[in-house]
Amino acid sequence: PRPHPTFRVRPLTCTETRRGDQQVVHSLGDGAVHVSAARHDATFGFSAVFDAGASQEAVFEGSGMRQLVELAMDGFSCTVFAFGQTGSGKTYTLMGPLGQSDTQPASPALLGLMQRSFTCLLEQSRSRASDLALSASYLEIYNEQVRDLLSPGPPCALPLRWSKSRGFYVENQLSVEFESLEAIVSLLLQGSQRRRTSAHALNRHSSRSHALLTIHVRSRAVSAHPAPGQGWGAQGSARGACPSKQGTLCFVDLAGSERVKETGSSGELSVEANSINRSLLALGHCISLLAKPRGKRTHVPYRDSKLTRLLARSLGGSGITLMVACISPSSRCLSETLSTLHYASRARKVTTRP
């Protein structure tokens, strides 16, 4: 299948409205987005488009996220990643509003794709007749260093390895088992609060790292009756069981693409921005090459960044991927918006073999 590109257009902010910014992006329905501005008049088509009035629930149900959860339970490697300009609503779409904690949870209506997927996953696991083991790992890529967001103590760099059987993987990352919605949401909030963020001219809470939360789903469907001649085990379970399945559901919150001069960044912030832009450029280059017909495709340089190494299987391998492109409708953001639209248009042409 191809990646499932979904677009979300956030509302104009109060600052943009006061500044007199014009709305240049409009949803036409049926997955079409129209950009209308001076010297620019273009229409783009995608699997689904959500305008400023779309609720978090509408995005979850309309993007195909529920089907992705079910595929992960069936043993597939599934990925959803949000990308777009800084301040375009990526983290909000995935997680909901910032500032929530265990003591001050967000309103249920504002919960993002992550929490809704966790709920769906746990509901599905209870309704299916299967033994299910769930665990989570949470990483960030900050200045080309991979750091564990769940391990105790200050985040330290972990080595990225490659093997024939596993592909690229992070050595010594912590994986934590969970059985309830409260436990996984607590892990999500714990890791998110350790993630690197900074304030600059475009966003007061700008993500300065790429974050990857992976849910590992291991299931072993047990038959209702024992196979002939096998009988029941000591614990009352059937010895005649179906083969185990191992799926993953990975949520990738990419740091925002941005022009350093527009953020007013300097010093360490400037170094962070350059590192973010280099990894996003490498990601875009890989997507462009993967979009070419297989006969004309050259070597895809996944090794150009740690981000593309970790997403190699999701982009061009055996994974199933949902892309959520977040954009601002403001005339001031037109250049970045067009860049995001072209980026996702190329990604539509990529095919994978799960």
Describe the structure in your own words.
The chain contains 11 helices and 17 strands. 40% of the residues are buried. The chain has a single domain, classed as Kinesin. Strand 3 and strand 4 form a beta hairpin. Strands 1, 5, 6, 7, 8, 9, 12, 15, 16 and 17 form a 10-stranded mixed beta sheet that branches. It has a 3-stranded antiparallel beta sheet with strand order 2-3-4, covered by helices on one side. A two-stranded antiparallel ribbon has the order 10-11. With 354 residues, it is an alpha+beta fold. It is globular. Helix 3 packs across helix 5. The protein is 31% helix and 29% strand.
Structure characteristics:
alpha+beta, ten-stranded mixed β-sheet
Class by alpha and beta content: alpha+beta
Overall 3D shape = globular
Please mark out the parts with pLDDT under 50 across 5 or more consecutive residues, or reply none: 229-239
Tell me the number of strands: 17
GO cellular component, one term: microtubule
Binding site for ATP: 84-91
Organism: Agelaius phoeniceus (Red-winged blackbird)
Protein name: Kinesin-like protein
Write the layout of secondary structure elements.
Blueprint: E1 4-9, H1 14-19, E2 25-29, E3 32-37, E4 40-45, E5 48-50, H2 56-63, H3 65-73, E6 77-84, H4 90-95, H5 113-127, E7 130-142, E8 145-148, E9 157-158, E10 160-163, E11 167-170, E12 176-178, H6 181-194, E13 197-200, E14 203-207, E15 210-221, E16 245-253, H7 260-263, H8 268-290, H9 306-310, H10 312-316, E17 319-327, H11 334-347
Parallel strand pairs: 1-5, 1-17, 6-16, 6-17
Antiparallel strand pairs: 2-3, 3-4, 7-8, 7-12, 7-15, 8-9, 10-11, 13-14, 15-16
Helix pairs in contact: 3-5
